[in-house]
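Study this protein:
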Amino acid sequence: MHLTGAWILLIFTVTALAAMLILLHLTSLGHIIHDNIPDRPRRRMFLAWVSFFITFLGVRLLVWCIVHDIGPFHWVTMGGRHIHHLVWGILMLLGVGYAWLAEWDHGVTPANIFVARLLALLYGAGAALTLDEFALWFNLEDVYWAKQGRESIDAVILFGSLLAIAVWGAPLFAKMAKFGRKI
């Protein structure tokens, strides 16, 4: 059976998101995260951060396999045109933005909490798919494995660092602000 690149990308994304949601909801790891990382916005930032790096690593591996003709992987094409994964990332980011504007994740019911976590994971995945091809939209040509492709890696490191600072630096910044008020 031959799977197209679009199906493989969809299967990878759904599998990765499902695995992360299962870990959050059905394992002790989920309880540890729930007990040690406060909700809104830090837990969402943490989930986006994890999803961002898992998606980035997964898509880099997938592209490497395609380039080296390993496995059943192929480019995503429509009508003979290669559809870059930044397109799927942009669509995911638009969908997450719409859901946040419509406040689908507000509330404290289990469904709202699930949607909030799912949106955070989708945001991280969408950002990774988009920024992994930053060099493409910056140079307006496919330079993924060329020297200019390093711009994508730089963008991923910068954005991933910003997410990490939001998660891990928030308590430090809060304590620094609290200390500054005492002076």
